[in-house]
Fold:
Amino acid sequence: NAGVTQTPKFQVLKTGQSMTLQCAQDMNHEYMSWYRQDPGMGLRLIHYSVGAGITDQGEVPNGYNVSRSTTEDFPLRLLSAAPSQTSVYFCASSYRGRPDYEQYFGPGTRLTVT
Amino acid sequence: EDKVVQSPLSLVVHEGDTVTLNCSYEVTNFRSLLWYKQEKKAPTFLFMLTSSGIEKKSGRLSSILDKKEPFSILNITATQTGDSAVYLCAVEARDYGGSQGNLIFGKGTKLSVKP
Structure:
């Protein structure tokens, strides 16, 4: 299993540009989520999905869109990049409804918006 | 508002020391508390705690949960330089269906272990 994969690893955008951060998992996990991590802020949930076709907002959803057309993929779209979106983005997945589980994290995407 | 507070925010110790990291939380419909270790990359899972008073151990690391206070501690004995990392505490609340909800993370404790 490749686990959770994210692309790209690094990205530099200009203000106003749009892009999609890719996330895929091959563990048949129902639950997938996107976090951003900023210095001194821990991880904050952007959007999450409990299954194909179902998405919902987390703590900091503004400026981001998601979709979940398949179980495997959960892309995060930046509609019009802003410097405040400079951050490290982590995608995570896990089983849903199991008594013991952990969230598996992808390697992260470091995004800089100038 | 649900929140997770970790203390201290940073800690410097010498190899061989024992450290205790703290995590307190206020969460509606608590389901579980998780500890992660992060070393300049993705967080890696350490422990998941759901019941009070049951210690979980893995080598020199151990953790316990007190749901009454509520808080959790992460202990690391005989620290090594390889333990240097940010330790993240996260709490999961149940969703409306009783299944797993989302993780709420604390800001982390940065541990530096000097030789």
Notes: Chain B touches chain A at residues 4, 9, 34, 41-45, 48, 88, 90, 99-100, 102-108 (CB under 8 Å). Chain B has a mean pLDDT of 90.
